[in-house]
Specification:
GPI mannosyltransferase 2; 20 helices; GPI-anchor biosynthesis; alpha-1,6-mannosyltransferase activity; membrane
Length: about 475
C-alpha cells in the first residue's frame, strides 16, 4: 500500500519512528568511526550517601554491553544518571529538575529491573532514559499533529509541521538523556487538551512539563489566556459577572498548580542545603527570596542578562542564528496575521500584493466552540471592518470560515518571551533546543513549504537543509562529547 493512502496520523507515527531509528543509527555510526573527545563519561565514583550502593563491575554478566551504554552518556546526561543513581549530592545538580531522573529510577527498579544483573544498575538507568525519551518524542509528534489539525483543520499542513518536528535541529537531544522529549510531550499535549476543552488534564500535563524543565511553568500563560477569553464571554455575552469572576479564579488556581512543582523543588533544595546543618551557609540562603535555581544559573553557568554578549561568543551566536531567525520569522508572520484580522480593512489597504500572496495558503478553520470570548472578539473585528471590501487574500473567503486567529496570540507571546530569554539571558547556542518545542516555528515552516510563491518555497527548502545539516552535525559532535549547543 502506498504511504500516501495511509491515514495522516499513521504517517506521522511512521515518520516519528523512522526519524528515531535513523538518528540512533547515525549516532552508532559516528561512535564507531570516531573516538570521543572526552572519555570520562564512564567514570562512576561511589555515591556520597551510604544509602546508595553501586554494583561491583565483576558482578555484571555483559560488561561490554554495559560499558557501551555507559560511555554513551555525555554532557547533561551524566548529571541525570548520577542524580537517578545517587540523588542530589551537590548544589549545582539542583539545576536539573527531577522528572527525568525520577522516571529513570522508577523504570530501572520495575520494568527494566531484570536487566540489572546483566548490564549493571547504571547502564539500566541510562537505557531506561533512552527508551523513555524516544517514546516521549514519538508521542509528542503525534500530539503536535493533533494540535495543528485542531487549529488549522488541514491534515496536510499538520502533517508537514509534524514532519518538520521529526527533523528539527535539536533532534539529537530528543533521543538522548535530556529533558526535551518529556517537556515537549507534556507541553504540546497540554496545549492540545486545553484547546480541546480538557482544562484539568491540560493543567496536569503543564505541571509535569514544569517538573521536567523550569520554563515549563511558563505554560501557565496559556491557562490564563483561555480563562480570560472565557471570562470575557461570560461577562459581555452572557451578562454573568459572577461567572466571569469564577472563571478567572479557576484560571488563577490552575496556574498556581502549574507553578507548584518548580516551587516545591526549590523548597526541597532550600531544606536540604540551608536547613540541613551539615554544610556551611550558602549566600543564596540568606536572600529575601532564597531561590536556588537562579543562583546556580548565574554562579555555575554564567547565565544572566547580556552576560553572554562577548566577542569570544560570536561563533555561538552564529550557531544559534538559524533558529533565532526562524523564531523571529514565525513571530512576525503570525503577528501580521493577527493584525490583519483585527484591524479595520481601511487601515490595511496599503499592503503590498506580495504580502497578500504570503497569506494565501493559510488554512481556514471553524471557530472553536470552547472559547466564548474568541467569538465576541471576532464579532467586534467584523463590526470595525464594516462593509468595506477586504484587501488581503485571507479575506477572499467568508469570515465565518477564517482560522481562529486569536488562538495564535498566546503561542506568539510565549515564543517571543522564550526567544528574548534565549538571546539576551541564556547561552545563546542553547536556543536550538530551547525553542525546539514551539509549535509556531513548525507551522510557519509548513506554510512556507506549501506557499505558491517560488521565493517562499526556496526559503522552505533552506529550512529543510538547515534541519538535516544540524541533525548530521549534532549526531556527530554531541554523541562524541564535542560541544554542540
Amino acid at each position: 500500500m502506498s504511504l500516501t493512502m495511509v491515514a495522516p496520523s499513521s504517517r506521522v507515527l511512521y515518520y516519528a519512528l523512522l526519524s528515531r531509528i535513523l538518528l540512533l543509527s547515525l549516532i552508532a555510526t559516528w561512535r564507531f568511526l570516531f573516538r570521543p573527545y572526552d572519555t570520562s563519561a564512564s567514570l562512576n565514583p561511589p555515591c556520597l550517601s551510604t544509602s546508595y550502593q553501586s554494583q561491583p563491575s565483576d558482578q555484571i554478566l555483559w560488561p561490554r554491553v554495559a560499558s557501551a551504554i555507559e560511555s554513551s552518556v555525555v554532557w547533561d546526561g551524566v548529571y541525570f544518571v548520577r542524580i537517578a543513581e545517587c540523588g542530589y549530592e551537590y548544589e549545582q545538580t539542583y539545576a536539573f529538575l527531577p522528572l527525568l531522573p525520577i522516571s529513570m529510577s522508577l523504570l530501572s527498579r520495575s520494568v527494566f529491573a531484570p536487566l540489572v544483573p546483566l548490564i549493571g544498575y547504571r547502564a539500566v538507568l541510562a537505557l531506561s532514559g533512552y527508551i523513555l525519551n524516544n517514546i516521549a518524542f514519538v508521542l509528542a509528534t503525534l500530539y503536535l499533529y493533533r494540535l495543528s489539525n485542531l487549529i488549522f483543520k488541514d491534515s496536510a499542513a499538520a502533517l508537514r509541521a509534524s514532519l518538520l518536528f521529526c527533523l528539527n535541529p535539536a533532534s539529537i537531544f530528543y533521543s538522548s538523556l535530556y529533558t526535551e522529549s518529556l517537556y515537549a510531550l507534556f507541553s504540546i499535549g497540554g496545549l492540545y487538551h486545553l484547546l480541546s476543552g480538557s482544562s484539568t488534564l491540560a493543567m496536569l500535563m503543564f505541571a509535569l512539563s514544569g517538573s521536567a524543565r523550569s520554563n515549563g511553568a511558563v505554560n501557565a500563560g496559556y491557562i490564563c489566556f483561555m480563562a480570560l477569553m472565557q471570562a470575557i464571554g461570560a461577562f459581555f455575552q452572557k451578562k454573568r459577572p459572577l461567572l466571569a469572576v469564577g472563571v478567572l479564579l479557576a484560571g488563577f488556581l490552575r496556574s498556581a498548580f502549574i507553578f507548584a512543582p518548580f516551587l516545591l523543588f526549590q523548597a526541597y533544595a532550600y531544606l536540604n542545603i540551608c536547613r540541613s546543618g551539615n554544610r556551611e551557609p550558602r549566600p543564596w540562603c540568606q536572600a529575601k527570596v532564597p531561590l536556588l535555581y537562579g543562583f546556580i544559573q548565574g554562579q555555575y553557568w554564567g547565565v544572566g542578562f547580556l552576560r553572554y554578549f562577548q566577542i569570544k561568543q560570536l561563533p555561538n551566536f552564529l550557531l544559534a542564528s538559524p533558529t533565532i531567525s526562524l523564531a523571529l520569522g514565525s513571530i512576525i508572520f503570525y503577528t501580521r496575521l493577527l493584525r490583519d484580522n483585527f484591524l479595520p480593512s481601511s487601515l490595511l489597504e496599503v499592503k503590498s500584493k506580495e504580502r497578500k500572496r504570503s497569506y494565501d495558503s493559510v488554512t481556514t478553520s471553524d471557530d472553536m466552540a470552547s472559547s466564548k470570548g474568541v467569538s465576541m472578539l471576532r464579532q467586534r473585528s467584523e463590526r470595525a471592518s464594516g462593509e468595506s471590501e477586504p484587501t488581503t487574500q485571507i479575506s477572499n473567503q467568508k469570515k465565518e470560515s477564517d482560522p481562529n486567529v486569536i488562538l495564535f496570540l498566546p503561542f506568539i507571546l510565549h515564543l517571543a518571551f522564550m526567544t528574548f530569554t534565549a538571546f539576551f539571558v541564556m547561552h545563546v547556542q542553547v536556543s536550538t533546543r530551547f525553542l525546539s518545542a514551539s509549535p509556531p516555528m513548525y507551522w510557519f515552516g509548513s506554510h512556507v513549504l506549501a506557499s505558491q510563491n517560488s521565493s517562499y518555497r526556496r526559503w522552505g527548502y533552506l529550512i529543510m537543509v538547515y534541519f538535516v545539516m544540524y541533525i548530521l552535525l549534532g549526531s556527530l559532535l554531541f554523541s562524541n562529547f564535542y560541544p554542540f549547543t
